[in-house]
From TrEMBL:
Family: Belongs to the peptidase M20A family.
Entry cofactors: Co(2+); Zn(2+)
Protein name (Swiss-Prot/TrEMBL): ArgE/DapE family deacylase
Originating organism: Bradyrhizobium brasilense
Zinc as UniProt keyword: yes
């Protein structure tokens, strides 16, 4: 690709950037929390059809996924869950095929009064766009769409097949991405524009979700000693799991990518529900938990360690020793992923990155997870993850930095052109 072609593509990104931001704002304005992603998928489908892509829009069938590697259990109503894929098919095949994927699901907002601006009324100020999902990762999804637009506006068209995929459930199980593979979508490489602060995700953790179901013995609080408090018993188990977290972080010091990362294994008791009455010793308590695992660690073996930890802690408790808690697997059962066998797409991206950023690509060991794992682990499709800079993902006042988004869009457009090849439209 000539320097003149590169500059035409970069200029096209700049020319379309205001429209890109307007589309991103409209996308962020849709409250696509778990189970409510349909309107976002409708919007993506419309955007793809407007551009002439072949659109595949289907309801996800969990029975077709439950035996696949990386499947996590679904507990909510999944009857409206959909995946949307737009496919570009070239007139002539000269380049290498590509999957571009983004997820449209977002995490809950928390108390609205703790946001400075309403989370689903995205605001642009001081060079940032604020809103739930503005960073993670609706801006990246729309950036991928406008990167393709920029190639077209530059008077070019890709010479390889491209699948533009909008998935759900990235924040809780990943079955949206898994559904694309079950559907048969494949490519020579995958690119996911998650917000990575302008670094390439070299290695990422996996995640296990589980629920502690603790039972107590209810009595009136005036004779509390005669009963057993399920909430306090749950704290006993949480403290034991914190010791498991410490042990796993010691183990992580032997990992070649994570040995330099402080505390890569994070355990989080994220939801707690329990009790029925303030003056009754609570008879029940459920705690939903998340813990990370590193690439190469067996999910099954880690599950056994979690069960052993909970069992040992229960044996040391007056009530739980005879009334053991239950552990339910409640979402992610996801392996970690290391980017390997990816020399060719990385070389193509390195060229694009050098033009836009003026230097070599920096690597990042990521203490969260992305959907890249499904493509790499399940089908050996090298899966790159690179994107814009932002902050407060999963927190209040989430934002993406707009100039970083512009640069990430430019790098993505040049990478698509380099990897897939382009010819005059």
């Amino acid at each position: 690709m000539t320097a003149e072609t590169q500059q035409r593509i970069l200029a096209a990104v700049d020319e379309g950037f205001d429209a890109q931001l307007a589309t991103t704002q409209a996308f962020v304005a849709i409250p696509s929390t778990r189970g409510a992603e349909g309107p976002c998928q409708d919007m993506i489908g419309d955007l793809l059809r407007e551009r002439g892509y072949e659109v595949d829009d289907w309801h996800i069938n969990l029975d077709e996924l439950k035996d696949l590697r990386g499947f996590g259990p679904i507990e909510h109503d999944f009857s409206k869950a959909r995946t949307v894929v737009g496919t570009y098919r070239p007139a002539s095949n000269a380049g290498k095929s590509l999957i571009l994927q983004g997820h449209c699901d977002v995490v809950p907002t928390g108390p609205l009064e703790m946001w400075e601006t309403p989370p689903f009324s995205p605001v642009i100020k001081d060079g940032r766009m604020y809103g739930r999902g503005a960073c993670d990762m609706k801006s990246g999804t729309i950036a991928a769409l406008y990167a393709l637009d920029a190639i077209r506006k530059a008077g070019l068209k890709p010479t390889a097949r491209i699948h533009f995929q909008s998935v759900i459930e990235e924040e809780s199980t990943g079955v949206g991405a898994l559904s694309t593979l079950q559907r048969g979508y494949r490519a020579d490489a995958c690119f996911i524009p998650e917000p990575t602060n302008g670094k390439m995700i070299r290695s990422q953790v996996g995640v296990i979700w589980f629920r502690l179901k603790v039972r107590g013995f209810p009595v009136h609080v005036f004779e509390a000693g005669a009963g057993s408090n399920a909430i306090m018993a749950a704290y006993h188990l949480v403290h034991a799991l914190e010791k498991l977290e410490i042990a796993w972080n010691e183990r992580a010091k032997a990992d070649r990518h994570f040995k330099g990362v402080n505390h890569p294994i994070n355990f989080n008791p994220g939801i707690i529900k329990g009790g029925d009455w303030a003056s009754s010793v609570p008879a029940w308590c459920d705690v939903d938990c998340r813990i990370a695992v590193l690439p190469g660690w067996s999910i099954a073996e880690c599950q056994k360690e979690i069960l052993a930890c909970v069992s040992a802690a229960a044996r040391d408790h007056r009530f739980l020793s005879n009334n053991p808690p239950q552990v339910e697997w409640s979402g992610f059962l996801s392996e970690g992923y290391e980017l390997v066998n990816s020399e060719a797409p990385e070389a193509a991206f390195a060229k694009a990155h050098s033009v836009v950023y003026g230097g070599a690509v920096e690597d990042r060991a990521f203490t969260a997870l992305t959907d890249t794992r499904f493509y790499g682990l399940n089908h050996n499709i090298p899966s790159l993850c690179f994107g814009a800079t932002g902050a407060a993902m999963h927190g209040f006042n989430e934002y993406v930095e707009l100039e970083s988004l512009r640069k990430a869009t430019k790098a993505m457009a040049l990478f698509i052109a380099e990897w897939c090849g382009v010819e005059k439209a």
